[in-house]
Amino acid sequence: MDRYVVIGNPVAHSLSPRIHAAFARATGEAIEYTRLLVPIGEFAPSARAFFDEGGAGANVTLPFKLDAYRFATRRSARADLAGAANFLASRGGAIFADNTDGAGLVADLTLNLGVTVRGGNVLLLGAGGAARGVLAPLLEAQPLRVVVANRTASRALELAERFAALGRIEGCGLDAIPRERFDLVINATSTSTHGERLALERAVFSSSTFAYDMAYGAAARPFLEQARGHGARASDGLGMLVEQAAESFALWRGKRPRTEAILAELRSENA
Ligand code: NDP
User: DSSP secondary-structure letter at 110?
Assistant: First the structure.
């Protein structure tokens, strides 16, 4: 039976084993998928041991996405652009890295939530690993433009420069967000998971905005309440988690699982 793991620290909370078990049952694939807790600073030896012992693939979560990217011997174009990987696969002696976070976000927005990214004015809050991971697929969905706003403005400007070839993109500080209407506001900062409230200089939401927090469950609540308080529609990032897992499963197994059932099941527990 092919063996897969999700590598992280901490990793005990990860829903990935449950999601992949549901995909395996639904598609008739016989796989084993477990959690692998790796000490900080020991990603490479732990990943090497897993693959040397015949491991087929790994998802990688905080704080190892950069280590996973560096560990691989071959990389997808979207992993190269992100400079980070959440997906590893053993392929004919090579370790292949990819980044499925952005595809997961765009699938959740467009397929599950009915949000039109094409032609929209998009505000992406944050310029960390998650923001970098989603920018290429987001720009490929052809929004009118993407404004990246970050607490440390220089990191937002760097990202705007790095992704400029893919579409219209600008960077700024959180205190310099253009005063205009945004169709889609995505929170890719870690404020939600740290239980902090995002200090936005002024309201960026309106009744025609769709607000999306990459965090999910209770952690996302303050941002979603902030957005709904201005009449915006809003969603947490549970669907992104399930959709990036589906993209990973499809890359590993060559079969794309349906996501509705497991997403509904997790949603009812995390409501
Ligand atoms: P990083 O640590 O790489 O980046 C953190 C970002 O948050 C930076 O832009 C940082 O700004 C900003 N930030 C941190 N604290 C504050 C604050 N007090 N005020 C304003 N901005 C702040 O984290 P990631 O990018 O990896 O993760 C971001 C979020 O996305 C997490 O909640 C994570 O759980 C979620 N995520 C969800 C996924 C899903 O499948 N649903 C997948 C991947 C991530 P600065 O540069 O100034 O430090």
Answer: I
